[in-house]
Structure formats: C-alpha cells, structure tokens
Amino acid sequence: MNLDAKDSGHCQWQSPSNIALVKYWGKKHEQIPCNPSISFTLKNAQTTTSLEWERKDVPSSSDVDFTFYFHGQEKESFRQRIQKYLNRMAEEIPLLLNYRLTISSENTFPHSSGIASSASAMNALAAALIDMERQITISIPSEETKQSKFDQRISRLSRLGSGSACRSNYANAALWGQCSYPGSSDAYAVGLGTILHPVFQQYKDAILLVDQGEKKVSSSAGHQLMVGNPYGDVRYQEARKNTENLLEILKSGDLDAFTTLVEAEAMTLHALMMASSPGYILMHPNTLIIIQAIQGYRKDTGIPVCFTLDAGPNVHLLYPDHHKDPVKKFIQDELISYCVDRQWIDDEMGSGSRKLK
Predict the structure, then answer these.
(1) What is the CATH number of the domain that holds 274?
(2) Is there a contact between 192 and 352 (Cβ–Cβ < 8 Å)?
(3) I need a surface site. Which of 11, 222, 329, 340 has the fewest CB within 10 A?
(4) pTM (2 decimals)?
(5) 204, 321 Cβ separation under 8 angstroms
(6) Rounded CA gap, 331 and 50, in Å?
(7) In a domain? residue 83
(8) How far apart are CA 344 and CA 330, in angstroms?
(9) Domain range for residue 229?
(10) Looking at the 3D structure of the chain, how many domains does it have?
C-alpha cells in the first residue's frame, strides 16, 4: 500500500440533511446513541463539500493541516469542531497527516437553525475524506469496493462528527441504533428504503422557516444536558418502543398511526429540553401557531398532514406526495405569513449522498 501515490487531488460530494421521526436525543461516548432513531432522507436541503489535498514535505505529527471555507469565506467559528473531527479521522485514515487540506462547503439552507446542517455537512465531509483515501491508496481492500460497505463506512465515520449524520447517505429513510431490525447497529445506520409501504415512498417535507438564526442552545449542548435529565431513562425506553412501532407503520402504511407517533416524538423532544437543567425553549410563538394550524387543517380536511420538529423552531410539515397541490395552497394561504421573510423549503425524500463530477 503506497500512501504517497498522488501528490495532489480533489473531489466533491453532496449530502442531504435528514429529518428524524423517532428522535436521537442523548448520547454516550463517541456519538453512540442512547436510543435508536429513524429518519426520512431529504433532497433539497443539502450540503456540497469540495476537498482538495496537496502532499506536504513534512507530515504533521498530530493535527491535520487544513483551511476551511463556508460559502467562500473562512469560518473560524467552525474551525475547532472540524479540527477535532479531522484529528479523529487521522486515526482511521492516517494518510491525512501527510497532506494539507482545503475544504469548501456550501448549504442550500441556513446552518445551525434546527434543520440538521451538521448531519449533511459531516456526511459530505466523511464521504470526501474516504474518497480521498481511495484515490491516493493504490491497494484497496476488496470489500471496500462494494457499495454497501462503502456506504456503511461513510455512515460510521460521519457519526463521529455528528450522530445524525450517519443517516444522511441512505436513500428515502434510515435507521440508526441497535434494535430488532436485521443489521441495525449503534455504530452506523442502515437504509430502510426497501421496506417502505408505497404511501411512504414519495413523502414530502415542507420546511417552514420560523427563524433562520443560530439556535441559542446547540444540539451538542442539548445532548449533554440529557445527562441527569430526570426523564432520560423513561425517554430511552419510549424511543425504543416507538422505533419498533414505526418500523411496522412504515411497512403497513398506517397514516393515522404515523401521525400520532411522529407528532408525539416531536413534542417529547422539546419537553425534554424544557425539563433539562437548565431548561430552555427553542420553539417560538409562530412555531406553536403553525402546529395548531396543521392540526386544525388535518381535522377539517381529512388530509393526512402532520408536523415534526428538529432541535430548533422550524416546523417540518410532512405529507404524501399526492396531496401536494392542496397542501401547498394551505401553506401559501395560512402558514407562510408566520415564516421569516415568508420563506419555506419545498422538500421531499431524496436519494442520499452522491459524488459530483
């Protein structure tokens, strides 16, 4: 294996965000989840990451040498987290210490506002680093050439940067965390696209942007506050039960059961934040207005819309694709006035991460 086969090179990867249905909230060492989670993979909320590398005359002894650009500007506020992640990746990919990296990243959606920007960003970066290794290294183990093993490695390594990132490279839906599902693991996610009932195969997600600013409490801090949360153990048991139930719902196509479970998970997530010490609230007044409007619209029309929330104030309006025309009218007529600058993201299930030419 020749680690110096190439002096320089580049690659570009694109990874989507994902929206958790059963929430991951609470973690152990090295981003191991306290409970399993299930998510829908998105299509339009995504991160594009370009990676360039140039071999150094003298390898680094500990810290990976890199420059990071976000939307064309150096972003020092991200540097510490990326440095920590790259140093951790050097344990998995030692050749990183031989190169100077230039990382350029762009989002199609606001970062740090509760749309899982770290999930798409870390998934794209992990994919790029693995791609770099494959380009530089002449001899590649045969199992790494198999797509399933490649996806699994992207999932596992992206998890070390952001837990929810491990779900982003699978099409349509993914499960992360050990449970009864075959192949499930705490170390990486597995795709669920093959088990979905037809009604769940083309699901829409309207992301209603209540606030595009950075959250006052980061998700990393929120996870840490689960340590000592008086409802933590009960929550983890509930999440395991909800994971098993949702797996059956996704197979059966039971939309009523889907709505009940998904909305309860969203409210539980924010209740856990309020019950932390110190407690905090990420929902805004317009978040609650939108939630009530969605529930009222569902009751009045019978259209199976439902909401979920990530760790932020923005609302994800989930619904089957064949209801898109009336739901978009509902958004325009009743919801958009509660969105900042009347902005929302028209999203849907996507195909996961991909390499760009």
Answers:
(1) 3.30.70.890
(2) no
(3) 329
(4) 0.93
(5) yes
(6) 35
(7) no
(8) 13
(9) 202-348
(10) 1
